[in-house]
Design a protein that fits this description.
The structure holds 2 protein chains of 2 kinds. By secondary structure, chain A is mainly beta. Chain A is built from 2 helices and 16 strands. In chain A, strands 6, 9, 14, 15 and 16 form a 5-stranded mixed sheet that branches. In chain A, strands 8-7-12-13 form a 4-stranded antiparallel sheet, with no helix packed on it. In chain A, strand 10 and strand 11 form a beta hairpin. Chain B is mostly beta strands. Chain B has 2 helices and 15 strands. In chain B, strand 8 and strand 9 form a beta hairpin. The longest helix of chain B is centred in the N-terminal third of the chain and has 5 residues. The chains are: A mainly beta, B mainly beta.
């Protein structure tokens, strides 16, 4: 696909920024770790040029079939409530994002991560490592099988517990679309005391919560949760050409 | 039976839960609400470790070099659980991306993207010096690398750019660098080191790195 230049001019798309009232801030007072880490100065606006409207192509070669099924490791089945997590990756214009690398990681059913820093006294599961990877299909769909992660304490404040969540990392097509986030489960009683959840502006919090799907729940096998993920778009509807291909 | 073999039901239409139509006027473009970001947390190494992460350019690529640096917090302590990702043009100014309106480039051994964690106290990526690029408006950009920093305590990534201290002439003409207050510009300059360049990232403090809103 070649675009056009007139002289040294390039017609570049511009990825829209979600309104500040709907974006998670970098720092949040209730989340202690932000204190010495979140930058304090106002960021400088970066115009979107060639480096910003492009991004790496990271595809199927990073993913194996086993990566979509977290419930089987080391020759055995992980303990926990088996769940299917599925959804679509779209941009904010409603366009599917195909061939997008989705990386997930999570605690096991007892709320323990397989990580040297996590030493709270809940058992590790020899058949669960908590790592999954998938690539979206041509319609932007993804799905993986896992077990429902447990809640765990984390010392941010007295009796602080993280609601059950799955970490997601996504690449879209371009640098502004890069997203690292967490998916929650509907109706979690721990939401109210969790600063990481509450750092999301109220009006956008529901976007981080998956929805139970009876339709995709599989008889005698697994519960299903749907979570659609929306990356930044360019403001052009899918029905317009998104290219300035006509030179004339 | 592999449960993942069951195809999604095409009879169930997709209905975005997060859809919104702004003020409700039908003339307003339809936009879905963007999924909010969250911190990578302390356990990012589980999900985001790649055996080949550091190689923006393949090992042994001629002219390749290392960029190494620390991520430092507001108390001057080294951050040992951050991840740094980089994205850049090749030495000829091309990108291995179909979204480049000039066409996707292929430069031998060049991926353009790297990710590295700071568990040893610093990150290191192996790459090539990016070429100069048109800014699309008649100007030319200085060689630069876009950088994302993820860490526990950051609820969204923070973005900065690496420029090169040994590109003074190009830097002086760069429309982004020259809009940064002069006394903070050097926080964006990688400085020559034994096997490449050094680029430390200060999240806070007197030498807080210039971060960008993209």
């Amino acid at each position: 696909m070649t675009g056009t230049t007139s002289g040294s001019r390039l017609h570049l798309p511009r990825y829209l920024r979600e309104d500040e009232s709907l974006r998670t801030p970098v720092g949040y007072a209730g989340y202690k770790s932000t204190g010495l880490r979140a930058p304090l100065r106002t960021p400088v606006d970066l115009p979107q040029r060639l480096t910003e409207i492009t991004g790496p192509v990271l595809g199927e070669d990073r993913v194996t079939a086993q990566d979509a099924d977290l419930t089987w490791r080391n020759g055995g089945e992980a303990v926990g409530q088996r769940i299917l997590v599925f959804g679509r990756v779209l941009d904010s214009d409603g366009r599917p994002v195909p061939d997008a690398l989705v990386e997930v990681w999570q605690a096991n059913a007892s709320g323990r991560y397989r990580h040297v820093v996590d030493n709270w006294p809940a058992p590790l599961d020899p058949h669960f490592d908590g790592l999954g990877r998938v690539v979206t299909d041509s319609l932007g769909r993804y799905e993986f099988l896992t077990i429902k992660p447990g809640a765990y304490p984390w010392g941010n404040h007295h009796n602080a517990w993280r609601p059950a969540h799955i970490h997601f990392s996504l690449f879209g097509r371009a640098f502004p679309q890069r997203l690292v986030t967490q998916m929650y489960f509907p109706g979690d009683p721990l939401f109210g005391q969790d600063p990481i959840y509450n750092a999301i502006p109220d009006a956008a919090r529901h976007r981080a919560v998956s929805q139970f799907s009876l339709e995709r729940t599989q008889d005698n096998w697994a519960l299903a949760y749907q979570w659609d993920i929306v990356l930044r778009g360019t403001g052009q509807t899918p029905f317009e050409t998104d290219d300035d291909g006509d030179v004339a | 039976m592999n449960p993942l073999d069951v195809p999604p039901d095409p009879a169930v239409p997709f209905q975005p839960r997060s859809g919104q139509r702004g003020t409700g006027f039908l003339t307003e473009p339809f936009q879905l609400g963007v999924t909010p970001s969250a911190t990578v947390g302390p356990y990012l190494a589980i999900g985001l470790t790649w055996a080949d992460g550091v190689w923006a350019a393949a090992e042994g690529t001629p002219e390749g070099f290392w960029i190494r640096g620390r991520v430092v917090d507001g108390a001057g302590a080294v951050v040992p659980d951050a991840m740094v990702e980089t994205w850049q043009a090749d030495p000829d100014g091309g990108f291995p991306s179909p979204d480049d309106p000039r066409g996707a480039a292929t430069y031998p051994g060049f991926r353009g993207f790297a990710r590295a964690q700071t568990s040893t106290g610093e990150f290191a990526i192996f790459t090539l010096k990016p070429g100069r690029l048109p800014d699309g408006e008649g100007g030319v950009q200085a060689p630069h690398i876009d950088v994302s920093v993820f860490a526990r305590g950051l609820l969204d990534r923070v973005v900065t750019r690496i420029y090169f201290a040994d590109e003074a002439d190009a830097n002086a003409e760069d429309a982004v660098l020259t809009t940064v207050p002069e006394d903070r510009r050097d926080t964006l300059l990688a400085t020559p080191a034994a096997d490449g360049y050094r680029f430390d990232i200060d999240l806070q403090g007197d030498r807080e790195t210039v971060f960008f809103a993209v």
